[in-house]
Amino acid sequence: MTDTVEAGLRRIADQYRAAYAARNPSLAPISTRVRFSENSVALPFPDGTWDSIAEELGPALTLVDTVQNSIGIFTAIRTLDVTGFLAIRLRVEAGEIVEAEHVFSTPRNLSGPPTPIGPVEEFDHDPDLTALVTPDERMDRATLISIANGYFETLENNTGEIRNTAFTEDCVRYENGKAYADVEKLFRLGRYRFNERVRDRDYVVVDEARGLVMARGFIDHKGVLDTYELTDGTEMKAIFREPHSWHLLELFKIKAGRITGVEATFIAVPYYMETPWAPAARWGH
Question: 254 is in which domain, residue-wise?
Fold first, then answer.
């Protein structure tokens, strides 16, 4: 039964992508009461990049959650001559898409300091993200969510302590297509001390068979930290010099209790901006 549900969700994901690329909602089973947001702003449907997409560039990575009937998609698109990374979260009821959430990050959508972003043309997803985990590496839903949440606990007020999570030595984090290696090393150095809050965390798609968790959240920087010291004694100057927030949809690959890979699509938003999706209050702030 679960395999049938998974196949149905993956079919709906493909239909949504095709409809979106064609700017034709009738090509997908989209409810007449669908709720839609883009970059954390509630919009009428269709609007935003539904009206401006020129083509999907891909490659697309899809994950599905047969418990929440939710879908996650990480891909890339072009609007006119602007390319960017797009993360999508869908929720399905009775075979229809009733929620659609987009985060679209482009080189033009920069912030102070500039949001990290790599070239769309050179990016590909780590093939391990979509691979099934072996039975000895597989974890239940609650454990996967807990480990992903520990990542955000570690990121918030990062002092060098690893809090309720773990990483493989070769774990790489991709932020808008730009690679950052040494994930655990940088956390242990306290590199991200300027992160005041990682709030409104919600775990919107969990693919247990592949060890994947897709999360929504915001990272707030108060802009009050001037200089700080890494755990190795290195003096640093905080890069955020004024109140600033990032909004994200972030994907974690987790095997045998360790995060092996991270892929995030995120944008700068007004400081302390909220989501229109009323996140669950299970975790933290």
Answer: 128-269
- pLDDT tens-place string over residues 162-179: 999 999 999 999 999 999
Last residue of one domain, picked from the residues 118, 140, 158: 118
| pTM for this model (two decimals) | 0.91
260 and 141 co-located in one domain: yes
Distance CA 220, CA 216 (A): 14
Q: Is residue 277 part of a domain?
A: no
What tens digit of pLDDT does each residue of 97-123 get?
999 999 999 987 666 777 889 999 999
Count of domains for the chain: 2
Q: Are residues 137 and 265 in the same domain?
A: yes
Residue 251 belongs to some domain of the structure: yes
